[in-house]
Design brief:
The chain has 683 residues and is an alpha+beta fold. It is built from 16 helices and 22 strands. The strands form 4 sheets. A 6-stranded antiparallel sheet has the order 3-2-1-6-5-4, sandwiched between helices. It is rod-shaped and about 165 Å long.
Amino acid sequence: MHPVRPNRSFVLLLLSVVLISVLRLALAAADVHIMGIAEYAVLIPVVASALLPVRQTVIVGVFNLAAAIALYGVLLRDMGRANQITIITALAVALVVSAAVCRIRVAGETRFRRLVIARERLALLSEASSRVGSTLDATRTTEELVEVAVHRFADHAYVDLFDSVLQGDEPVLRPGTGDLTLRRTAVAGPSASSEAVQPGDPVIYRQSAEPTLGLFTGEPGMLEITDPAASLPAESGDAGTSGVRSALAIPLRARGVTLGAALFTRFPGRDPFDADDLLLAQEIGDRAAVCVDNARHYTREHNTSLTLQRSLLPPSAPRQPAVAAATRYLPAGPYAGVGGDWYDVIPLSGARVALVVGDVVGHGVRASATMGRLRAAVRTLADIDLPPDELLTHLDDVVTRHRDFGEPQDACHEVGPAVGEIVATCLYMIYDPVTRLCTAARAGHPPPAVMRPGSDVEYLDIPAGPPLGVGGLPFEAAELELPEGTRLALYTDGLIESPGRSLDEGLKHLRTALSDPIPALEDMCDHVLHTVVGQGARDDVALVIARTQELDGTHAVAWDLTEDLAEVARARDLASSRLEGWELGELAFTTELVISELVTNAIRYGSGPVQLRLIREDALICEVSDASNTVPHLRRARMFDEGGRGLFIVAQLAERWGTRQRPDGKTIWAELALPAAGPQPIR
């Protein structure tokens, strides 16, 4: 019980009793009789019952009755006995009635005050339910919690979470581990900007402090603060903990997992927290903890999906003799979910390279998984050296079959086309560094940008085929010659499309960004993303910027051969001479054997003209072309067979070999590993 402080009404009523008594004595001494003086004494307890608490009302009534007894029973003896008894009885009855009325009034006021407090707490709880957890961001959820609590419930509020919660993982608490380190995620209250511990800073929860014990037991605590440095987790000197009168430490627990703690404090100018406040704070904390746990689960799933998607993409563009390339993948905002954008740089036979970008419509794990399947299919189809238009045709069949026989998506968790549908776009380009020819085809994808040396940025006019999986017209390829040093920019629609900006405006922004003279490809990628996309992407973005290179006569040489088997010996001599010029004499025997088999097969089973080409880059590439479309097959010859061992020998000697079709025939190629470089001298 807190002592009742005397107020002005109480003092005035006591003085009124004294004043009326003195006035009654003065009138009696002067033998003046004025009617109604005694009635004023009866009114004093009644007035007290309307203004004062019960205790003070009783004190005023008793004091008034004692004054009347002393006045009428001792000092005013000339008054009749009956009048004295009547007046004193009236005052006694007034005392009892005033006490009863006052008790009824106080009980009503208490009920009304409790009703008001209950309504305020219910309103606070309703506001917390509607405001806290509006996003799937744990930090923002804690900020909303302290914003709701401060001023209406507490003077200061803090929330601290474990680092593992912010990363999407589940914290593990073991008793006896000593002090705990949490991360302050939100703080609110007067002078919050001058707090010693700011959001993002670590906070030490001391082993013996009550908030630390609450993290292990899950029980909330009401703290009477005598030493903030020993009782609170905040650092000494923190503006929010100096002068604190009382505090509530609420562990944030959801689904049996302790995520962190919320701390509410009040200063001496405000009533300390009581048991009802503790229940209210626990209720608000429990609701906020569920929202934080939902954000933790979302963060974990988002990180898992993003890791899955990044694992399906190439880590970096491999070194290629045909192009120098830089790549970027920018995921969409945290609430859009991972998407199905991908890119690839695929080495092909003959030192050529394939540049690929694609986009599976929609977001979610299913879109990422579909993207992985399509990327694997593209690599498989590229490995058999299909031209771009044929490759997209086969890729369209892959999407159609997967749509017809694949499992339908869960419409509640995936964003994109209707259940069972798969729609994707793709751009596939092949560049040959020997001929400097680029062949490209696209399936519903934005056109690539090309920047020839000394020329402005332009978009290639490639026939726009239908997206993959929707059916329609066949795909068409376009071929053009690119000078050395030409830059190619391949991208997905997330780079140029955004709400409030048309497609033409996006293409114009991209053209402007690519026109800036930035020599380094990596810097150019960063510049394009920063200029065109800005801070937050509404959709995934895949970007490939490549600079073409040329393999001139010092790296590649070709000879035309006649359809005479005598040309086989000439082909061996030409190859041996070139290897000597390239200082690759160690490969002469193996190369001559491979060339003999390939040229012999081309002359014997193919048709002219026949061409032999050698390319020296990361490996020695031997190519023999003829006008026949017949593709040879590797088989194992029986013991007494006279032929059928040529390709088997080539396959044993070469690192890789294969066949690719051309518009005017086919090419059989074999790659031979270059001899390892000898030990380098010590410098």
